[in-house]
Amino acid sequence: MTAPTRLRERIYMSSPDVGAREEELVVEALRSGWIAPLGPMVDEFERQLAERCGRRYAVALSSGTAALHLALLNVGAAPGTVVIVPTMTFAATANAVVYTGAEPVFVDCDPATGNLDPALLDQALTALRREGARVAAVVPVDLLGRSVDHTAIGPVCAEHGVPVISDAAESLGASHAGRPAGSFGIAAAVSFNGNKIMTTSGGGVLLTDDAAFADRVRYLSTQARQPAVHYEHTEVGYNYRLSNLLAALGLAQLERLDAMIGRRRALRAEYDRLFADVAGVSLFQRVGDQYDNCWLTAILVDPASAGWAADDLRSALDVCNIESRPLWKPMHQQPVFAGARSFLTGAADRLFATGLTLPSGSALGPEERSEVMGVIGDFLRDRR
Ligand SMILES: *Cc1c(COP(=O)(O)O)cnc(C)c1O
Q1: Is residue 106 a part of any domain in this protein?
Q2: Ligand 1 close to Cβ of residue 167 (< 6 A)
Q3: pLDDT tens-digit series, residues 287-332
Q4: Is the CB of 114 under 6 A from ligand 1?
Q5: I need a labelling partner for 215 at 20 to 30 A (CA). Which of 26, 269, 270, 364 fits?
Q6: Which residue has the least CA distance to atom 8 on ligand 1?
Q7: Is any ligand 1 atom within 6 A of the Cβ of residue 141?
Q8: Does residue 46 lie within any of the structural domains?
Q9: How far is residue 124's CA from residue 119's CA, in Å, rounded to a whole number?
């Protein structure tokens, strides 16, 4: 295979998808004078997010990580407690636990979805409680936009008396059992980072139905200022609020969210056709994905029956200036978390070894899409 001769911009897995409407609302926010930093667009963004996610309250924050951090503080995560996190996730989930001084404990996943394994979670909670550990929270992650099996996980956590904080960073617009992602747990965190299903360039939201929880997050996210004419502080706070300018971007993105999900779904269907008859390759999370937001599409490659490995395709794409990447490297394999307590089955290790995430963004134009499909098609033909 030869690299394309003409210079083309690199094709990324998930680039921001912004256009005229985003420009219009950001300019409107600028001209309104609400720059410093909160304003009416933050209020409106929160109102729409709460409605979209079936929640009473939404607090717009500077990142999804900030939302996780404050939610964890609110349920008492602190030194001397542990928090259960899936090992198959992005590091931010575990990092937020460490910020509180609590210790992350990693639990393996269901091989079909990559999401927290409910039976193993039950075993982990039972073992930890038997040892007298104080478990502050369980933080299930909606991997690549597939909602966790909350129908199974909710009762397990309730039985052990441990609150659920839902990491819905990747799953805005997905649903489970007829309820939107972000509506589960005592609180949920969504991310609007640049590579997510929609973006505020950087941002996040904390969602909850509990007024006191929302008030407390609002307070902690604005430097923990007491109501006084001077600056009065009785606790250490954070500077975690989303600005009005970024909320303007978010409002435009929310208008287009369903269309953007539709484009990602169409791309997944295209990959499904491309790999349909390829031995040893399956589309990850394909079963049941009518409820997913299809944030990222990944394949699993069994080298023994395919005759090639996921990394071979990654290299072939990279030569053509197209980005692809293995699935999240499990947290228990990360040097920074070496020695952390883990409950493992090997499922996450296998997904990491065999998975490849492909260009999935809604901003990909028809030319880029056919370029990606063409390069993969050539790769597959060469190996038949
Ligand atoms: C992106 C992401 C986060 C962090 O969100 P930021 O807005 O980037 O801080 C947390 N958890 C998961 C699973 C994510 O994918």
Answers
A1: yes
A2: yes
A3: 999 999 999 999 999 999 999 999 999 999 999 999 999 999 999 9
A4: no
A5: 26
A6: 193
A7: yes
A8: yes
A9: 9
Q: Report whether 88 contacts 143 (CB < 8 A).
A: yes
Residue 329 designated active-site: no
Confidence of residue 5 (pLDDT cuts 50, 70, 90): low
Q: How many domains does the chain have?
A: 2
Q: Name the β-bridge partners of 84.
A: 105, 138
Judged by DSSP in three states, 84 sits in strand
- Tokens 């430097």 found at: 223
Average pLDDT over residues 255-283: 97
Cβ-in-10-Å burial (0-12, 13-18, 19+) of 365 comes to: exposed
Beta bridge partners of residue 61, listed in sequence order: 204, 241
Q: Smallest Cα–Cα separation from 60: which of 257, 242, 281?
A: 242
328 C-alpha to ligand 1 centroid (Å): 12
E strand or H helix that includes residue 168: none
Q: Would strands 187-191 and 204-208 be described as parallel, antiparallel, or unpaired?
A: antiparallel
Domain range for 104: 20-254
Q: Which of 254, 270, 288 is the last residue of a domain?
A: 254
d(CA 10, CA 4): 12
**Rg of the chain over CA atoms, in angstroms?**
21
Q: Identify whether residues 346 and 374 lie together within a single domain.
A: yes
Of 65, 147, 192, 295, the one to substitute when testing ligand 1's pocket (max ligand atoms within 8 A of C-beta) is 65
Give one DSSP letter per residue of 26-55, joined into a string: HHHHHHHT--SS--HHHHHHHHHHHHHTT-
Using a 6 Å cutoff on CB, does residue 166 contact ligand 1? no
* Coil, strand or helix at 242: coil
**Is the shortest distance between the CB of 64 and ligand 1 below 6 Å?**
yes
Please, what is the Cα angle at 351 between 261 and 356, to 5 degrees?
55
191-235 per-position pLDDT tens digit: 999 999 999 999 999 999 999 999 999 999 999 999 888 998 999
Closest CA to 199 of 325, 16, 9: 16
CATH number of residue 95's parent domain: 3.40.640.10
Catalytic residue among 69, 146, 196, 256: 196
Residue labelled with tokens 């360039």: 201
Instruction: Choose among 240, 166, 255: nearest CA to 204.
Output: 240
